[in-house]
Design brief:
Strand order of the largest sheet: 1-2-3
Distance between the termini: 91 Å
Strand content: 5-15%
Number of helices: 11
Number of domains: 2
Helix content: 40-55%
Order of helices and strands: HHHHHEEHEHHHHEEH
Shape: elongated
Number of strands: 5
């Protein structure tokens, strides 16, 4: 008589893929937060953003959630935390507004949403029975002044260009150290007369479909292998005909313009007085 193995039968019946995750769950009676799978399994949010959203939802009302406060708790640093907060804003899990106090001080008011309004509207439109009510969205008022630029951040056209790359694709998120290391390579492109917009296109065009695990190394390779040649020297002109001024990159809009010295283009110089009046 063949001996049967009941445990083997139970594993086959469960349909669980070998090597997959197993759950050992115990009910929580206190100190817990209800979080939806729409956040935990969000296909577009980074793991940093998902973890940050869960942390913020677990905080009591009035807890500070400024970039500096969060960077003091976690090892990701201010740049990655700022990028994660922007992700949560884009997908409706966070709302941040500036408010001026009677004293004149500007503070950031932050509202954490455990279910974005778009999901709530879709559920109502589809007449889906509402599940058991989860804790209400926790308004978290940030009583800290606007932190402004990250301390020690390099504010140059090349560094700003690198920091903006994550707006094209979140996989191109760089750390402050990466920006400092790659900025000289971007400066070489700019000094060779390549407009900043063309540099961004060269770095973001034709990105691979698979994950970019090391964005700094990926960008460094493109900056090196795709570096354009130095422009040839201008042809000598007839005597008495002055040479045109060299091309400069505008410090305001980063467009190319001709000028004997670096600075701002004519449009940006004309706009600056009105900007000061508006301020």
């Amino acid at each position: 008589m063949t001996e049967q193995n009941p445990s083997a039968h139970a594993r086959a019946a469960s349909g669980r893929r070998p090597g997959g995750v197993e759950h050992e769950n115990h009910p929580h009676d206190d100190h817990f937060t209800v979080v939806g799978n729409h956040l935990l399994q969000h296909p577009e949010l980074s793991l940093t953003a998902i973890g940050l959203a869960v942390h913020i939802q677990s905080l009591p009302a009035g807890a500070p959630v400024g970039i500096k406060t969060l960077a003091g708790k976690f090892p990701e640093g201010e740049i990655r935390i700022a990028a994660a907060l922007r992700e949560l804003e884009e997908h409706g899990y966070l709302a941040r507004t500036k408010e001026r106090l009677p004293s004149g001080r500007v503070v950031t008011r932050t509202v954490s949403r455990n279910k974005p309004r778009a999901l709530l509207a879709a559920a109502v439109a589809a007449a889906v029975p509402a599940p058991a009510p989860a804790p209400a969205p926790v308004p978290v008022t940030e009583a800290e002044a606007d932190p402004g630029p990250v301390p020690g951040a390099v504010r140059t056209p090349a560094a700003d260009l690198l920091a903006r790359l994550r707006l094209h694709d979140s996989r191109l998120l760089l750390t402050e150290r990466d920006v400092r290391r790659l900025a000289p390579s971007v400066t070489v492109w700019l000094e060779r007369g390549v407009p900043a917009t063309a540099v961004e296109r060269s770095l973001t065009a034709g990105l691979p479909q698979e994950p970019i695990r090391h964005p700094a190394a990926f960008l460094e390779r493109r900056l090196t292998t795709d570096l354009p040649p130095v422009l040839p020297a201008p042809r000598p002109q007839a005597p008495g005909r002055p040479l045109p001024d060299p091309l400069q990159t505008c410090d305001g809009c980063e467009r190319a313009f001709r000028s004997p010295l670096p600075g701002r283009c004519r449009e940006c110089r004309a706009a600056r007085p009105s900007e000061h009046m508006a301020a």
